[in-house]
Each structure stands twice: as C-alpha cells, then as structure tokens.
C-alpha cells in the first residue's frame, strides 16, 4: 500500500531498489545478479537492496570506481548521482527528516543537508549509502576522497555519532597532508 502519492515525498524503499534492479536486468537482457557480476567482477550476494556481504577490500574497489569510473560510463555515473525529482522532502531511515531529501538513482546525496551522517566537512557533492548492518561508503569527488567502513554492529544511534566524527577527522587529516 502506497505511503504517499508518487512525486510527493521521498521514501526510501528496499522494494524500490529491487524493482529498479529488475528493470536494469531486463534492459541488459540478463538477470540483475549476472549483470552486476559482469560489471563488478564479483557476485551479488543477497538482494540488491539489502543483505550484501563483501570484504572491505571489495568495497574499496567499488569506491575507486566511483571516484574514477572505468567500468561504469562517466555519463551513467553522473546521472546516478544527480538529483532525481528535486525538492522532495522525506525521511532518511534512522537519521531523520530532511527538506529536501535529495537522492540520485540509488545513492543518497548529501546536497545541503545539515547534521548528515557523512559529517560537516564533506562537500554538497558527496554521495553514498549506508546499511542496516552498520557499514557505509561515501564518495566526495570534490575532496578527492572516499570513505568506507564495515562493522559488526547494526546501524543505530552509535553510528550517527561515530560516522560524522570519523568523516570529519579523515577530511581534516587529508587537508593537513
């Protein structure tokens, strides 16, 4: 059952991510899992929306690709990290309400959000994703940095305190170098 009419509110949805993956698979002429593996070189374990398990080295490989695309067409990545349906307010699950709550085609965009999980020093161009399993990846191409973390703690209030501090510390250190 819809929570709001399409185009009125931004509501994160695992089902929406899975439907988008099905569309990509159909367009590619193969199941999404096969398409994903052909692009990334490793299998998708679990749903495209949740339950993905991978080592930090693989997550960092994804970060490198998002910083300097070689597998993904630069135009495709630019579209994916551009605001889709601008101006919609909504809730970032576990974080709070933002107006606007900008998203790309999958990645959450920092844009002008304050009190963001990526910290205060990341640029408005920062994009990324975090999961209920307590891990995250953000990319700030303006700063020339990406940051990823994997934990054995489920996402919660601890993350909203630790992740921004970690992000800001990494950016401060990078500025000193």
Summarize the structure.
This protein is an alpha+beta fold and about 180 residues long.
Blueprint of the fold:
Elements: E1 10-11, H1 14-28, H2 32-40, H3 56-67, H4 74-80, E2 90-92, E3 96-98, E4 108-109, E5 127-130, E6 136-140, E7 145-149, H5 157-176
Parallel strand pairs: 1-2
Antiparallel strand pairs: 2-3, 4-5, 5-6, 6-7
Characterization of this structure:
This protein is about 35% helix and about 15% strand. It has helices at about 15-30, 30-40, 55-65, 75-80, 155-175; strands spanning about 10, 90, 95-100, 110, 125-130, 135-140, 145-150. The strands form two sheets. The protein has a four-stranded antiparallel beta sheet with strand order 4-5-6-7, with helices on both faces. Strand 2 and strand 3 form a beta hairpin. The protein is globular, with a radius of gyration of 16 Å. The mean pLDDT is about 90.
CATH architecture: 3-Layer(aba) Sandwich
Based on CA inertia axes, which overall geometry fits?
globular
Q: Whole-number average pLDDT?
A: 92
Helix content: 25-40%
The profile of the biggest β sheet is: 4 strands, antiparallel
Order of helical and strand elements: EHHHHEEEEEEH
Structural class: alpha+beta
- Provide the CATH top-level class: Alpha Beta
Strand runs, count: 7
Total number of helices: 5
Euclidean distance between termini CA atoms = 52 Å
Low-confidence stretches: none
What is the third-level CATH name, the topology?
Beta-lactamase
Q: Beta fraction of the residues?
A: 5-15%
Strand order of the largest sheet: 4-5-6-7
CATH superfamily: DD-peptidase/beta-lactamase superfamily
Question: How many structural domains in the coordinates?
Answer: 1
- Taking all Cα atoms into account, the compactness measure Rg is 16 Å
